[in-house]
Every structure is written in structure tokens, then in C-alpha cells.
């Protein structure tokens, strides 16, 4: 059961959008996907069909990490609310603002293993686990990375966002961090999102990423499209933005499948 974290030390770059698109394409292929919202903002949860007030009185990822048992994780499961083909293959672990409280546990010995302890015993229940993360390199990202086999960086072709990917990669590859946290994950891809045609800066940043990361950069790049934002506003998968976006996520999932095979 490959576990993959989607991350960047930068917000608003399309991390959640990427998790949605990959989850939707995997589900279309008949794979059973567990989508874990590990961002206290709960954007993935909202876009998979659950408003904040609907999550107030039920278990979420916050309680699962607190109790760090597979039972607590299972208690948080919700069906994705998209159309049928997608929905029946995607299970959501929702998030709400209370997840912020877990950050105070960062100093507790082995607290960084708590998500891994929830997930590892579920091996076999899902074909893919995708973790959406906040734009920080702190305790919540540590929880995700410790639980993960693979990492995909999501970025816009802009200076600060690309810097965020460099910091993420440096963190994952730092020997002290790997030993201290017990990381085994490795980066399998960098995806470029919100690219605008005819913008010289976007072309330069894209080239710089390819120079630095080579084959790790997964083409094709997702262009900036109002229809993608509209889909997320409506709590629909990005695939509803049309055939161009559908094809991009097909290609990305081909790359993903090769990497995790
Ligand atoms: N290719 C795109 N074109 C237009 N808007 C996009 C695109 N990708 C994402 N967005 C929008 O940009 C915003 C930030 O994306 P999101 O996935 O929430 O980023 P992050 O999770 O990194 O904060 C959201 O409103 C989303 O709908
Ligand atoms: Mg997000």
C-alpha cells in the first residue's frame, strides 16, 4: 500500500488540487484510494464534500493522530462526495482546525510516528494512500513524511514556490533528519501547476526545475485555468474542468504508477 505525501514549503501552489486530481484518476482506474487531509485548513475535506460545521461533532484526523490507532483512523473515515465512479473508490480522512492542537505534541518522544501507527496496520485495505499537507516543514509534515514511502512536490513556476521545493527536498534528504525521524521516503516527482503560456518567468522557472530535478519533473504541466478553480469552488474534482485537465492527470498517474510499482 504505497503512501505518498504531496507537499511544498509554500501555500497556494496546488498541493490539494494535485491530491484531488490524482485521487480521481486512480479511482477511475478502479483503485481504492485513501485521501488523508493533514492540513488544519481542511481544504481537501471541503472539496471532497464536507463543510467545516459538518465535521465539528465527529472524529477527524485530529483525533486519529491524538489516539494513534488504526481504530481511531477508521472512525474518521468518510465517503468522498463526488460523482459515483470517483466516490465509491475514494475514502476521505477529513481534517478540521483542531488538528493545530497536535502541533503542541511535537516534543513528545516518538510523537512523529503517530500517523504511521494509524496507517501501517491498514496495509491491504487500500491500493493507494495520498496525504495532503500544510505549507510548513514542522510537526504535521513530519507526521506525513514518517508515514510515507514517497513524496511528490507540487509547485507553481515562480521563485518562492520553487524555493519551497528545494527546501522540502533538502529536508527529506538530510541525513540527520532521516535518522532522527526515521524517514524512509524518497521524492518521486515534482509537478508544475498554474503555468501561464507566454510568461517568460514561468518558462525560466520551469527550465530551472528541469535542470535541477531532471526526470523527477512530471510533464505535462497543468496550466492556469479558471475552470480548475471553478471546479474546486464547486467541490468537484479538477477533472470536471474538461478533457485537457483529465489528460494531464492521466499522464501524471501513469508516472505515479511507474514510480510506486
Ligand atoms: N491549474 C489551476 N488553475 C487555476 N486555479 C487553480 C489551479 N490549480 C489550483 N488552483 C486554485 O488555486 C488555489 C490554490 O490551490 P490549492 O490546491 O488549494 O493549493 P495548496 O493546497 O497548495 O494551498 C485554489 O483555489 C485552487 O482551486
Ligand atoms: Mg492545500
UniProtKB/TrEMBL annotation:
Residues 3-174 form the AAA domain. Pfam families: AAA_31. PANTHER family: COBYRINIC ACID AC-DIAMIDE SYNTHASE, P-LOOP CONTAINING NUCLEOSIDE TRIPHOSPHATE HYDROLASE. This is Chromosome partitioning protein. It comes from Streptosporangium sandarakinum. The lineage of its organism: Bacteria, Bacillati, Actinomycetota, Actinomycetes, Streptosporangiales.
Amino acid at each position: 500500500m504505497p503512501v505518498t505525501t504531496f507537499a511544498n514549503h509554500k501555500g497556494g501552489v496546488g498541493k490539494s488540487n494535485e491530491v484531488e486530481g490524482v485521487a480521481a484518476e486512480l479511482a477511475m482506474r478502479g483503485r481504492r484510494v485513501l485521501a488523508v487531509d493533514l492540513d488544519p485548513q481542511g481544504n481537501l475535506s471541503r472539496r471532497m464534500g464536507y463543510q467545516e460545521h459538518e465535521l465539528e461533532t465527529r472524529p477527524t484526523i485530529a483525533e486519529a493522530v491524538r489516539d494513534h490507532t488504526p481504530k481511531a483512523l477508521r472512525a474518521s473515515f468518510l465517503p468522498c462526495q463526488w460523482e459515483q465512479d470517483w466516490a465509491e473508490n475514494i475514502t476521505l480522512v477529513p481534517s478540521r482546525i483542531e488538528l493545530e492542537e497536535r502541533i503542541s505534541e511535537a516534543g513528545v518522544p516518538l510523537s512523529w510516528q503517530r500517523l504511521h501507527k494509524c496507517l501501517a496496520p491498514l496495509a491491504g485495505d487500500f491500493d493507494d494512500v495520498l496525504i495532503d499537507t500544510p505549507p510548513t516543514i514542522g510537526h504535521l509534515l513530519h507526521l506525513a513524511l514518517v508515514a510515507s514511502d514517497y513524496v511528490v512536490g507540487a509547485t507553481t513556476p515562480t521563485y518562492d514556490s520553487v524555493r519551497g521545493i528545494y527546501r522540502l527536498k533538502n529536508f527529506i534528504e538530510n541525513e540527520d533528519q532521516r535518522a532522527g525521524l526515521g524517514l524512509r521516503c524518497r521524492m518521486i516527482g515534482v509537478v508544475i501547476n498554474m503555468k501561464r503560456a507566454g510568461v517568460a518567468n514561468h518558462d525560466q522557472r520551469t527550465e530551472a526545475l528541469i535542470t535541477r530535478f531532471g526526470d523527477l519533473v512530471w510533464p505535462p504541466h497543468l496550466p492556469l485555468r479558471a475552470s480548475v478553480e471553478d471546479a474546486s469552488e464547486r467541490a468537484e474534482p479538477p477533472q470536471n474542468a474538461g478533457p485537457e485537465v483529465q489528460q494531464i492527470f492521466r499522464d501524471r498517474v501513469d508516472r505515479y504508477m511507474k514510480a510506486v510499482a
